[in-house]
Amino acid sequence: MNSEKGQMKLRLLDWGCTVERCRRLQEELRRLEEPEGTENTFLQEEFKAERARLEGRLAEIWREKKRMDALLAGLEENEQEYIRLRFEKGYGIDYIGRRLYISRATVFRMQDRILEKLRQAEIETP
């Protein structure tokens, strides 16, 4: 998936699982809380470094989510529903077509139109 639309699809897949990824990172951070009685300086520094890395990753994920949310806000309501069903909930094309009362072919055309809109909006956004 080297095309621009393919890359946007991958970003939407990442966006769709943001909450779950952040929950897992927060759980890792909770487990890395400095154990009481740890007097080993090396171990303390390793814990601090790993926590800093995870906190940075968490902040990066949220920044990307906010960027994608801003792009998605420019879509029509039915297009936002498609994105939510496909990339956040993970439903298939056939189910989405039945849910939105449109044909499978129309779902694919809608997807292509949405990906192009998002790509254009990203180009136009400074």
UniProtKB/TrEMBL annotation:
Q: Which Gene3D superfamilies does this UniProt record tie to the protein?
A: 1.20.140.160
- Could you state one GO biological process linked to this protein? DNA-templated transcription initiation
Q: Name one Pfam family in it.
A: Sigma70_r4
Q: Mention one GO molecular function.
A: DNA-binding transcription factor activity
Residues covered by the RNA polymerase sigma-70 region domain: 71-120
Q: Which residues form a coiled coil?
A: none
InterPro entries found in the cross-reference section: RNA_pol_sigma70_r4, RNA_pol_sigma_r3/r4-like
UniProt protein name:
RNA polymerase sigma-70 region 4 domain-containing protein
